[in-house]
Each structure stands twice: as C-alpha cells, then as structure tokens.
Amino acid sequence: MSIIEVKGMSKHFGGLAALSNLDLTIREGEIRGIIGPNGAGKTTLFNVISGVYRPTSGKIFYLKNKRIDGLASSKIAKIGIVRTFQRTAIYHNFTVLKNVIVARHLHAKESILSIFAGTGKKREEANIKKAMEITEFMGLGHLQNELAENLPHGHQRVLGVAIALACEPKVLLLDEPLAGMTPTEKAQMIEMIKKVHQQGITILMVEHDMKSVMELCDYISVLDFGKLLVEGTPAEIQNNEDVITAYLGTEDITSLGGEKVAA
Asked: Tens digit of pLDDT for each residue in 112-129?
C-alpha cells in the first residue's frame, strides 16, 4: 500500500526547474533511499513533500486520498509526515530533554482553553514522560540533562531524530542523517534508524554515503536534474549503467557502495 504519492511534481526557482514532472510512490513500511548527484533535486523534493516549499505544479497524496501539496509544514507534520534537516534544528541552550519536550509542545499546540480547564498539568506530565521515553529509546537517556550545545556532532544528529520522533511521525524524512559523522557515529546512527523503522515508521532518506544507503534501504529512487532517472533494489542500482554515468561517467561504482568492476 502506498503512503505517499507524488504525481507530476515540478518546482521552479525562476527559470530553473529543480524538479520536473516527477512521479514517485512510497510504500508504507519501507525505507526508501533518495539519491542522486549534487543538484539533482533531492532536498527540494523533501522541502516540497514536507511543506517548506509550495510546488509549482503537480499533486502529493498521503494515504491514497488526502491531498497535501500546498499545505503548511505544520499541518503536514501534524498528520504524520515529519522531517529532519541537513543542519540539525535544535535549541543549543536547552538540555537534551527540554529539546524533546519543546517538540512535544509544538506538535500538540495545547490550547488556552485546556489550561483553564485544568488539563494543562496532566498534559505537561505526559509530555515529560514521553520525552524521557524517546531520549531513552534513542540512547540519549544518560545525556537528558546535558546542554545540546555540549553534545558531540553525532549525538546532536541523534537528538535531531529524537525531536522528530516527538512529533509522532508515520513517515520520517531524514535529510543526510550521516553527514559529518565518524565511522563509529555512522554505525551507531544506522542502528538507530533501523530501530526507528522497526516501530512501524516509514522512512525516506536522502544521503550521500552510498555504502550506508545500500545497507539500509529496501528500495532506491535516483534523481538527476530534477527527474526520476531509475528505481530499484540496492543491487539493481549498484549495477545500473545510467546511475553509474550520472554519478561518475565511468564504470567505477565504488562510490555507490559496490565493488569496482573490470574495464
């Protein structure tokens, strides 16, 4: 069953087409990789799906019949499509736990009426409890009272995912979750992504580390110049000549997570 369908999607910036008549179907429960050379339109696609940008044309459907293109990003997050960013969006002067609690508040948007009705305290207690559960789940329990600015880069990226989980996503869009990480941090993040996926969350991932993409993803969509070049399993993508040409212009697929083939 599809959970997100992109139909005829285009996004123009002036005379530049960042996305051009793109069709894409994301199946519920999968980890889908979105890859492509620099400037292929990957982050633009994320921005359109998550409501950061309005599309120039085309439609996006969520759970078959709910059209979401053009909705505000807050409304899209509210229905269950939540994204992280290349640069982790955290409050550096807040503790780890407070960052996740704030995300809970922003997602819930508690009303003034609930405060006067006396339900505010109960909700706050529930938010704190849930935030603590999320930080523990993401391996940050021992750092709950640490200021976010004091965390190593890898832990800040994990906190970014924890903040996204506070919004109770059904679909999680990960924008370069492994960027800037050491090999050890990458291995830990990969295990965290698998753990999140096991909770029944569909994951879309833009990532330049092809070895990790091939390890994590069930299916991969390759963009080039704003268009869908090809889709397939990791094994199919590694050996696809169009993909190799788009990335390298050669027969060398080492950067795609595969082994170098003979000339």
From this structure: 445 445 556 777 888 899
